[in-house]
Design brief:
This protein has eleven helices and 26 strands. It is of the alpha+beta class. It is a single-pass type I membrane protein.
């Protein structure tokens, strides 16, 4: 039997055709063998490529680092080594490299982006400001560090995220009361900042003892953007101006309204870090001893390393990242979820919430998680109880209103990703045969009707038989 006939017979029997025999046929060109081999190899590599983008391990990710100069790779090595030690794969490139790309065939190649390139006027390759904003809109994280020579491109990216740098390109943050004491007094632009945000989720539960060294430009937050938070604020005595020129008018930025480092958590839970100083990440600032003016205590090491390590854990979702699983509801005394509820039914609702610790999912413990039983407005609002193992639960009675309701959880807490859960369920009224035969509230009316009948019977008897 010819080979072609054997293949047709296998097709009729629905038997698999060996690839080797298939490629030996005369009707498949030799070039097709190479194409088939490439397709098979691509399918075999897909699982390996997809492991970096698993939602179950949100902190296993590749990071693209764009630099002005490769010298920053060594001068800021302590910060980069901290990321490497936590399992991040850093890919260093020059910001104007014509070969750089953050996506290919509609798929992003990286999960996070670090911009330590304040002077870049135009990114290389296919990257521009719009591409970086789309990167964030797709749920990815971003770190931006500016400086006195920040380009319009970097300023534009910061403005789009809700942060406005001082418009004066020569302006620096100056503080004559909260500066860092050094061998040379200088112009008091080396700030010793210690006004941190009060959030264990963002900066960890270990207090930062030493001040953070900062030298750079300040920025203000857009008041219409409620998602931006100041992580490190300037002191009330600080102001933003050119330290080499005399002030002739009040500075545009002054006091604690100046933010030195800010963070943003977008509505899609993407996280952004904005810093007005590239030196903040440098080895020199990491290792420097620090003493704040007016404070006699001197620290052998600045708080920069601890500050940026804890802050980068938050930005890269190693802390404060929540997920909710196993959302369940059922009638009390039953185990299965019903298709609908009846008014006045007693039900139980439960959900499991976990927090990513950087390596594993740990039970999330809180006492402020609430569920709404919602139809146009919440009819029931209950705070969920917890046994401390990640499971939250409560029970309540279905309101005496029928319609289409929703179980809703809208959990928003400073430093944590937003949880938005909803589950729809209809509520029906009693059927005609489910009402009680005799309603206790109607007993007076029953008594009145029967007493009237009895009285009418007695009156009739008396009237007819009385002379």
């Amino acid at each position: 039997m010819k080979l072609i006939d054997k293949i047709q017979l296998r097709k009729l029997r629905k038997e698999p055709i060996p690839l080797r025999r298939l490629c030996e046929t005369h009707w498949i060109p030799k070039m097709s063998k190479l194409v088939i081999l490439c397709v098979l190899l691509s399918f075999s590599l897909i699982p390996l490529l997809c492991t970096s983008f698993s939602s179950d391990t949100p902190s296993e990710r590749r990071v693209l680092v764009l630099l002005d100069d490769f010298a920053l790779k060594s001068s800021h090595s302590l910060f980069f080594n901290s990321l490497n030690s936590r399992g991040f794969d850093l890919d260093f490139k020059l910001a104007d490299d014509p070969k750089i790309a953050i996506q290919r065939y509609g798929q992003y190649l990286y999960d996070s982006l670090i911009l330590l390139c304040p002077t870049v006027e135009r990114f290389g390759g296919s990257i521009d400001a719009a591409a970086i904003l789309d990167f964030v809109d797709s749920g990815h994280d971003l770190i931006v560090a500016a400086d006195t020579n920040a380009s319009d491109l970097i300023r534009t990216i910061a403005t789009e995220t809700g942060v406005d740098f001082d418009e004066d390109p020569a302006a620096l943050v100056v503080d004559h009361s909260g500066y860092a004491v050094s061998a040379t007094e200088g112009d008091h632009t080396l700030i010793a900042g210690d006004d941190f945000i009060k959030s264990d989720a963002i900066l960890g539960n270990k207090r930062i003892e030493a001040p953070v060294l900062f030298q750079g430009i300040g920025h203000s937050l857009n008041p219409s953007n409620s998602l931006v938070l100041k992580v490190l604020s300037a002191s009330p005595s600080a102001y933003s101006a050119n330290p080499k020129s005399k002030l002739t008018s009040p500075p545009s930025l002054a006091g604690s309204t100046i933010s030195l480092v800010s963070v943003i958590q977008a509505r899609n839970n993407a996280r952004i870090l904005i810093s007005g100083s590239v030196s903040l990440f440098s080895n020199r600032f990491f290792r420097s001893c620090v003493q704040k003016a007016g404070n006699p205590s001197k620290h052998a090491k600045s708080g920069n390393e601890q500050f940026l390590t804890e802050l980068s854990k938050w930005v890269f979702h190693e802390r404060g990242h929540l997920k909710a699983v196993n959302v369940q509801h059922h009638k009390i005394g039953e185990a299965d979820e019903p298709a609908m509820y009846r008014i006045n039914d007693d039900l139980e609702y439960s959900v499991e919430i976990y927090e990513w610790s950087g390596t594993t999912w740990e039970p999330y413990v809180a006492d402020d998680v609430q569920v709404q039983f919602y139809m146009m407005s919440p009819y029931v609002l209950k705070t969920l109880s917890s046994a401390g193992k990640g499971r939250y639960f409560t029970s309540f009675k279905v309101p005496d209103v029928y319609g289409v309701f929703q179980f809703k959880i809208e959990y928003q807490k400073l430093g944590y990703t937003t949880l938005s859960l909803s589950k729809q369920i209809p509520v029906r009224p009693f059927r005609h045969n489910e009402y009680e035969r005799f309603i206790p509230a109607a007993y007076p009316y029953y008594g009145a009707a029967f007493s009237m009948m009895a009285g009418f019977f007695i009156f009739t008897a008396v009237h007819l038989y009385n002379k």
